[in-house]
Amino acid sequence: MIRGLKISTPFPHGGKLVDRVVTNPVKGRKMAKHTDAVFDIKPTLYQGVPVRNVYREIMSTCYGFFSPVEGSMTKAEVDRILKERRLLSNWVFPYPLVFDVSDEDYKKLGVREGDSLLLRAKGKPFAILDIDEVWRIDNTEELATKTFGTVEGNPEVVREPFDEKMPGWVIYKSLNPVVLAGKYTIINEPKLLPPFDRFWYPPKKSREEYEKRGWRTVINHQTRNVPHVGHEMLMKNAAYTGDIEPCHGIQVNAIIGVKRPGDYPDEAIIEGHEAVNLGGYINPKRHLVTITLWDMRYGNPLESMLHGIIRQNMGCTHHMFGRDHAAVGKYYDMYATQILWGKGIPSFGFPAPITDVPYGLQIRPQNMAEFWYCPKCGEIAYSANCAHDKEKQKFSGSFIRGMVAEGVFPPGVIFRPEVYKVILKWWKKFNYPFCNPKYVKEKEKILEIDLPDMKI
Amino acid sequence: MIRGLKISTPFPHGGKLVDRVVTNPVKGRKMAKHTDAVFDIKPTLYQGVPVRNVYREIMSTCYGFFSPVEGSMTKAEVDRILKERRLLSNWVFPYPLVFDVSDEDYKKLGVREGDSLLLRAKGKPFAILDIDEVWRIDNTEELATKTFGTVEGNPEVVREPFDEKMPGWVIYKSLNPVVLAGKYTIINEPKLLPPFDRFWYPPKKSREEYEKRGWRTVINHQTRNVPHVGHEMLMKNAAYTGDIEPCHGIQVNAIIGVKRPGDYPDEAIIEGHEAVNLGGYINPKRHLVTITLWDMRYGNPLESMLHGIIRQNMGCTHHMFGRDHAAVGKYYDMYATQILWGKGIPSFGFPAPITDVPYGLQIRPQNMAEFWYCPKCGEIAYSANCAHDKEKQKFSGSFIRGMVAEGVFPPGVIFRPEVYKVILKWWKKFNYPFCNPKYVKEKEKILEIDLPDMKI
């Protein structure tokens, strides 16, 4: 006898959703008043270009996306993560997350352990950092390398040494040397700007939404792309997993943050996914497009662990993973993520799948192989099914981007017309279908939020 | 922590595969010699037409498809099945299975408890029945009704009283009154006739085949149809279930037995499924077409329980179930099977899903909703996804049969050309694309086997 094949909503990673957002402005103002110094959040730059904005980490932490993480990490926590990919509380976690300032700023601030710092965004009070520890990063390049691994140290999955073409490595290399460790609290609740506002489902809200919709099983699709038909098929097909029936819900969770040139703008990505359900290709009743604020590290298996944490916290039961998940270049094995979820990566501290280790994850992987277009099958075919080796036509992201850049209206087999119209809409607005340095800089000024006035 | 999301091959129902086939002809001949009487197997007739052939039950029993059942059932076993749908050993089982003879034949045979009976098929020694008990069915119509249920007694799933339009009810109503209960042993191993021979994978062999192919997870598709593209899509899509990745194997298991007029001939069914993999629509490496000998009872949820038992014995981890599973007419709720597997049917003895009760099944259901053709999606769309209510075109079996009967070459969206060619091939052979009374009678003479000569 097997007891109960039905899967239910996983508990949050670490057992409890972090909620560090003060929604009462009177209380928030009072807390802001009792801080010891003020600091204006700035993007992290590399060669003058924004590569990260800690404001996104503060948002995702305080709204519980990264539960059980509550703030900027102490040295001991970062050391344990780099050694075992675990928090001091034992729960698995892939990346160091820190609030870093320059020596110059640190001197100016004059803060120390026990002090609290008022953080401003867009010139307005935003959050508080209660400083538990001040520590130094001796060598950011070393930190960056330790974060992502080496060919010798992580032979299961690392194929090439990381360098400055890897955005995540650049983010860690560009950190300021002084870390102020401690918990964040948002004291002035931001308002998401359109179109981001209608996709904002922090974990507490997403869990409520699933319950309202009667979704017991929900599979997540990670995205940083406007969905072509291949993506749509991946979503639809991976969603047949579930337990005794296909997953009730399909959630798209788009990672919103600093872009690379050539990426689609975030606005086109989320509205493009929405167009899939507005167009009726995936019934809106079964489909929910959401966002998480995060500057992608492109750490393939490590990033997939963070994705698992975020989506488990949001209440998903399943997560689809394809080839080259959250990857850039050829640093990692193209199946590194599936290795982590399928058998584990001992050199990262996981001798078993990440769901099967103590203090591991509960969300279940659906590891998918490839899709291609097959004119003989007359469909976007799954590689395990279609045996038409001569006829198959692989999807090429760069080919599709090239087609878009040249203004060719793509055939229905590549983009649904409703989705392509979204690309055109934002192309008009930004004068180009893809992100350029101007878009990137502009975005780090506007961010994705507005803040209410708050006089201190 | 969850320990192990990976699913492994289930053990046979009841714990052990039944194997009652004597493969050594010398031993078989010796056993045949020591029998007390001889009986020539005959089809069960209803109004002169064959509706069942017990030879198929003997084959499926002795080769382990029905494990742990070993033969014709005693009265106590039949009573318990009708009351609780369990064998005396507690394992769940849906149907009475008996070896029945007429009063006249019983008198002629002159056998009693403790005797053994040599059964001949096609005039040759085939099997032995070791008689443990002789009992009488008082009222076969009552037995038939008790087997399938009533509107009052089984309100969760029975919608209309059973009658002579229901083939399973007719089978039980047509039984002879004397039951010879006891174990079967095949003592002269039959040779399956072409084209059935290459689809013959009894449980032991199918399990070996999966292992050879490296299939840890296998989903079964039940069929009694030449597959149209909707069936193909059901198979491909249901197969995305599995555990941490889509099912490794897709098994088609065709029920081969007495046909109803209007059915496709068995030969076209199995070669039609094979054409799906030979045509490359489902890679032959992932696809296995197999058969089970059984005269369908069309008992919807009860039949699905038998299907679960057969395919669990074959080694499958999953079984797909659609609407109106193994149904005819409107006797049962169209979702009766999914009710059995999703929450249980208390009136049949199952207050919980059939996988969650003691001595229940291990094979996991994948309960699927509907598929239809949607010209807007440009695909066979799943009802939970496609929201194009105006455009959708439902598959109609009778429409498709009508098209075939009129010799219209159906569009690619209905039949793959390779599959349609199989229909044509057998149409030529049988002079009609569907089964007629002549085919049905002819088949009960030839059966699906040849038997070696065996002199007693």
Please provide a written account of the structure.
2 copies of one chain form a homodimer. Chain A has 14 helices and 18 strands. The first copy, chain A, has 456 residues and is α/β, with parallel strands linked by helices. Chain A folds into 2 domains: 25-192, Sulfate adenylyltransferase (Roll); 198-444, Rossmann fold (3-Layer(aba) Sandwich). In chain A, strands 1, 4, 5, 6, 7 and 8 form a 6-stranded mixed sheet that branches. In chain A, strands 12-11-10-13-14 form a 5-stranded parallel sheet, with helices on both faces. In chain A, helix 5 packs antiparallel against helix 6, helix 7 crosses helix 10 and helix 10 (301-314) crosses helix 11. The mean pLDDT of chain A is 96. Chains A and B meet through helix 8, helix 11 and strand 14 of A and helix 8, helix 11 and strand 14 of B.
